[in-house]
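Sequence in, structure out.
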Amino acid sequence: MSKLRVIGRNLPDLGNVSSEPDWRQAKPAWIENALRLATGRATGGWMVVDAAPKFRDKPRRYRLQGQDYVFWRNRDVVLAGADACPHMGASLAEGRMQDGCVVCPWHGLRLGPAGEERWPTLSVYDDGVLVWARIADPANKDESPGLTETPVLPVRPPRHLDAVIRHEVRCEPADVIANRLDPWHGVHYHPHSFGRLRVVEQLEDEITVRVVYRVAGPWGVEVDARFHCPDARTIVMTIVDGEGTGSVVETHATPIEPGRSAVIEATLATSDRPGFWMVAGNLAFAARPFMRLAARRLWREDAAYAERRYALRK
């Protein structure tokens, strides 16, 4: 790599920042303690399913905590229930939509928002960017009293350009969160995307780093980014200073079945630069695929990190 050249906003001097090598700063004990605190936070039973625009005019199947569910949209509302017709067990995801109902492909049974006694519907929440489902953990009989009406929503910029990816990995949700609680690996594991990283602040369960994101070749922009976990299956990176202040990247880890998880990552970009929204508004159709491509590239690599962590533990 050629010499790094930082462009954009000048950030304040960090002063006496540790010059220890990253392998010394990335202390396993701190990562594990931060992970323990994060995974102890309540979820209210909610987990992210996928990007909201994925739910349109046909039923879709998702596996969550070892069970298959069918999701469909009725006008502005996303609905869900078990992906097994209560009549004879047909997959409803292979059916069709009619008047807001999902129709069984075998015998035409119509199932609507109210469900029926043998086929109850799930609680679903559409926040405009992501769709969440509320499912009690069958292994935790004490969780039901802790179920909440809505999920724990991260703080988002009021105006943003968003892009979402979904990537499946062979690990548990905690391994996904652990990956993001280790920002020190970024420069070494993703040299194509990150040019330099220094720790600004390290608390018991969150960390703020100053990192240079590569834009093109040796050129990059420097930002201060804070990582924190609002619930047990979510870690949020918020840009607190530098280019794009207020932008967030939400990484949600959803259990599919034991040893298999889905990473649903939402990037919500914002800026106070003059003309940003004029350009973003006109070029959103081109910007979103680029944002998704960058996120997928990182998660193809980070999946190996999370899977290796899971394999070592098992």
